[in-house]
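User: Continuing from earlier, I have the next pair ready.

Assistant: Great, send them over.

User: Here they are, in order.

Assistant: Folding the first of the pair now:
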Amino acid sequence: MSVSSGPIVLVGGGRMGGALAAGWLRGPLDAAQLRIVEPDESVAARLDPLGAERVREPAALPATLEPAAIVFAVKPQVMAEVVPRYAGFGGADCVHLSIAAGWPSALLARDLGEVAIVRAMPNTPAAIGEGMTVAWANSAADRDQRALCEGLLEAVGAVAWIDDEYHMDAVTAVSGSGPAYVFLLAECLAEAAVEAGLPADLARLLAERTVCGAGALLAQAEDDAAQLRRNVTSPGGTTEAALSVLMAADGLSPLMTRAVRAAAERGRALAPS
């Protein structure tokens, strides 16, 4: 990825912002190209070892700075306060990349004007370079600006694009929130193992390693998830007995459908009217 067109300004250094910054500095950026705006000193203590320049507020950024991208990595609840402070700061060639859930481009444009905007939804495996991010760009974002954003996001994992911004809430519900569903699966599997008589430490180890191993196999296998499931299911065997419960009419599939729907609806509700 080329970032020769200018520095990157990261607004917010929390868990996801920090994961992005660490990924960039492992790959496409050097510390001199990155500016981080983060007022919270407890958060800053995790960021300062990265070596990038940090300021507490945008007014402390150099007036002559011409960033190639401004990346908003703050919580949706504070976007209304944060975004207007960057109106007119980036210039015509700057792309504004937001990872705030439920904050549509119309609200960004309201505060920033008719600028290049890319919305993206990464997820927490970005912290280890295994994230999944889906992105959408408005019509003002040109090919080079999209490529810049893609390069920044690829530094922490895989990237896919969508053409319709409306789908961002569903994306958030599936991949953005999805790691929590997998973590819950590991919790529930461990609890079920204890109920079956296994010691708690062994139950947790079996659950966590099974989830990790199955995920790694899914990532590397040519078969899709359905075929991998069939591969491990012997007719009349133990797996089939368990799946008869999980795949029942009131089993995992309708439960997951309701969960994703609830998350997507919540995402839409996050945006102020």
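And the other member of the pair:
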Amino acid sequence: MRILSSLPLIGRLHWILRTLILLLLALLIYLVVTGVQVWLTSRESDPVPASAIVVMGSAQYNGVPSPDLRARLDEALALYRRGLAPLIVVTGYKEPGDHFTESEAGGTYLEGHGVPSSAVVEVGGSDSYENLADADAVLKARGDLTVLIATDPFHEDRSMAIARGLGLSPFPTPTKTSPITGFSTVPYFMKEAIAVGVGRVIGYRELSTLRVGLG
């Protein structure tokens, strides 16, 4: 600061501008690297035997899963039918005015496709962190730690990071039938890069409390 105060006004402005540019450049590089990591994780799939499958919440319409949620449920259903886990945990609350939660819609869908109710657990959560925190409480009470994460490919990195932070041992099993494909995934990957980047700095629990629309 002593060096800065000794500079003339124009010199100070140049120093401040150069510092801001360097900070913005560092931030951009950080987000780009994070985005690449999110993209690489989206391409991973490791369906190993586990204690449970966790389905990340997504929209439902009057008890009917949205195409996005249905794709996640179908992935969980395929994993369950392969005998990779004996339990499916469906997550998600409901929006104001809804009559059903995302987890209720998911549980009904799975049971309608032959999964016994004893193999389905419904929990809440209004965002990714709460989805997994609620699932974590149930799983640890059962002594279950190894989980398969069923969600969209672009959402896998953050879901895995949150699960690891809670003390679970997650493995990626992104849906292969997501309705969000091609160039339409770009905004979602950008959003995830920001969410993961911020979550790594301040913590995913803290990010959840901010309610900034990052999900």
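Worth noting for the second one:
The chain is about 55% helix and 10% strand. The radius of gyration is 21 Å.
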